[in-house]
Design goal:
Length: about 650
């Protein structure tokens, strides 16, 4: 080849690259990032992920290579066709007792949305308590409490997490890693499947002493979260895809393999992907399980209404280099930090992808989302350290297509959201830096959200719970200023707010339990909170720490810690506030009971006039009329893995 030939090939390459970039620019101008790519074969999935090189995932990316692959043949024609076509809350329930010798009424899991049950490690039916702890399913005949006893200790394979109860059926979720052989679609040759799997094991518990496994539905990945609506369970799993040899996800109905017919993928590059599978199954009967798979980011928020599932996560952008940061315009209105939200319609087990949207900022938890009259309301915090505000909060209203139709932005500069609660046309929002502003936000006009009122008090609330139409309970931390002028959290703070005048919310009363180091499971898990207005009880698990000065010490401020663990029980009066009814100590109740396992109370339930406090290692029943009277104390099998393991 002559030197002229080398030059010709170089020029040809440059021309082709320029054409590719031009094609991408036109494509990007016409394409919204809300349009998902539907991939229907292993070959398409392999082509999609082939372009996600380590350079794109971790730095020094060439965006033209990835985006051009989506537009110039990196995804097959069938996927491109589908791609273009795709353009077009609640307090804990109180339930009447079951037939037989059970309680006349009893509490159930404290859920966000009425009619949408949330999985938990403990359930009850007014007679029996069902607990998964470690690798054991324990069933306790708990009512009457004086005759309480364990009737079943059933070993469960794998890492057991949570369960559902539906009449005479239990659904237990457990993660395992095992080998399956299945025959891929279009071939006759079996291949091995070595993926981590989540099993939804269904037990017939008509005979509580002898549960019988009747079905096992397995989905790829580890267990993330689950909901139950009527007779159908929806559970979400996730795992890292094999970038070198990807394949379509497979679910199992017993030994029968069902390969996913499609995988939904974002049209924009991210620095890391997770393969999510949303699987539905009927709790009773022999109906087929349904599943949809999605190549998304690290999902950290699941919100479910009676008709839709929303999966949200912070969008992870590939690294664009220091030049991008220097070129970023100070007048840029939209921050780089964004959250992606996907909507999937659900009905009787069917799952249908509907829409994708993005909003600036990140979501705190599931209470940052709420569906109302078909619209989705979203509360986010933006952390933009290149701006003057550093941090601020936003509220958005999205239509069913997840297009933004209303916005309220730049709330509480330099603060972030600590809790949110949507109730009807109102949003109660707590932000914090040095004081706790409780905002009352009007969402009656979805196109024009607005602030109605604001209250500032010391401390903050991690969880907000409606008491009635005009009162709100906040559970969080008190705060104090340290010697350097900073703010540090101290004891657990319980606050009652009067919001009858939405323009002027007031604090009725607050109670602080313990000092620095005190904690409660409610601060990170709303299912640990129990409120029953008729019995006038509010139960909160507490790890209380009190600092005791060391007398005669030559070191100023020297102290030891006294620790108490158990449950505080209060009465609530909307006019005057809280009245302590008693305390229930669990286990030794000392600092030797580490916070993350053992006798730390994680849940409370009641059956008639008995309050049951539940930890990983025991169930204690106390008389609600006299909380010093212990009616039942049963140890259960458990292990000492930290709570986050579950």
């Amino acid at each position: 080849m002559t030197p002229d030939g080398h030059i010709w090939h170089l020029l040809t390459g440059i021309i082709l690259m320029a054409m590719t970039i031009c094609v991408f620019q036109v494509f990007a101008a016409e394409t919204s990032e809300s349009e998902m790519v539907k991939i229907t074969s292993t070959e398409d999935l392999e082509e999609y992920l082939k372009n996600v090189t380590p350079q794109i995932r971790y730095g020094y990316s060439n965006f033209a290579d990835f985006d051009a692959a989506l537009t110039t043949g990196g995804v097959t024609e069938s996927a491109q066709k589908v791609y273009s076509e795709s353009k077009a809350s609640a307090p804990a329930s109180i339930t009447s007792g079951a037939e037989g010798a059970g309680a006349s009424d009893y509490s159930t899991t404290n859920v966000q949305v009425e009619g949408v049950d949330e999985a938990d490690f403990v359930k009850n039916d007014g007679k029996y308590i069902y607990v998964v702890s470690g690798d054991t399913l324990t069933i306790v005949d708990a009512f009457p409490a004086e005759q309480g006893k364990i009737i079943t200790e059933l070993p469960v394979s794998g890492s057991v997490s949570e369960l559902f109860l539906s009449k005479d059926r239990l659904v237990v979720f457990t993660d395992t890693q095992e080998e399956h052989w299945y025959t891929p679609k279009g071939t006759s040759v079996p291949v091995p499947d070595y993926t981590m799997q989540t099993h939804a094991v269904i037990y017939d518990i008509s005979d509580r002493a002898h549960p019988k496994e009747v079905r096992d539905i397995a989905a790829p990945g580890t267990y993330e979260n689950a909901r139950m609506i009527g007779d159908y369970v929806y559970f979400l799993t996730s795992g890292t895809p094999d970038y070198n040899s990807p394949r379509m996800p497979v679910i199992y109905d017993g030994d029968v393999a069902i390969e996913s017919l499609s995988v939904w993928c974002p049209p924009f590059p991210m620095n890391e992907y997770q393969m999510h599978t949303l699987t539905s199954l009927p709790v009773t009967g022999s109906g087929d399980p349904q599943a949809e798979s999605f190549l998304l980011g690290y999902s950290n928020t699941l919100y479910v209404s009676p008709e839709n599932v929303y999966i949200a996560y912070e969008k992870q952008e590939p690294w664009r280099g220091w030049d991008y940061l220097e070129e970023k315009s100070s007048e840029q209105k939209e921050p780089d930090q964004k959250s992606v939200v996907h909507r999937f319609a659900i009905k009787n087990g069917d799952i249908t992808y509907k829409a994708t949207g993005t909003v600036p900022g990140y979501l705190l938890n599931q209470f940052s989302l709420d569906e109302n009259r078909g619209n989705l309301r979203v509360a986010t915090t933006v952390s933009d350290w290149s701006s003057d505000e550093k941090q601020y909060s936003n509220v958005y209203v999205l239509d069913p297509d997840l297009k933004t139709i209303g916005r309220l932005e730049h709330l509480a500069p330099e603060e972030k959201i600590y809790s949110a609660r949507f109730i009807g046309d109102l949003l109660y929002l707590v932000t914090f830096k040095q004081t706790d502003p409780l905002f009352v936000i009007d969402l009656s006009n979805p196109y024009q959200p607005g602030i109605l009122g604001e209250l500032k008090i010391p401390g903050y609330s991690d969880y907000l719970h409606p008491y009635d139409e005009t009162h709100l309970i906040g559970i969080g931390k008190d705060t104090e200023e340290n010697e350097w002028g900073g703010i540090i959290p101290t004891g657990v703070k319980i606050a009652l707010f009067d919001v009858s005048d939405v323009n002027n919310p007031k604090l009725v009363e607050s109670v602080v339990i313990g000092e620095k180091g005190s904690d409660s499971a409610v601060l990170s898990d709303h299912r640990a909170f129990l409120l029953d207005k008729e019995r006038n009880i509010m139960a909160i698990p507490i790890r209380e720490v009190i600092h005791v000065p060391v007398e005669g010490s030559k070191y100023e401020g020297s102290h030891t810690e006294e620790t108490w663990q158990g449950t505080y029980v209060f009465g609530v009066d909307p006019e005057s506030g809280f009245t302590e009814k008693g305390r229930i100590k669990q286990g030794t109740g000392t600092k030797d009971d580490d916070w993350w396992y053992g006798s730390t109370v994680l849940r409370e339930i009641f059956m008639d006039d008995v309050l049951y406090t539940i930890s990983r290692d025991r169930i204690v029943g106390s008389d609600l009329g006299d909380l010093t009277k212990r009616l039942m104390d049963i140890g259960i099998k458990h292990d000492d893995r930290p709570m986050w393991y579950y």
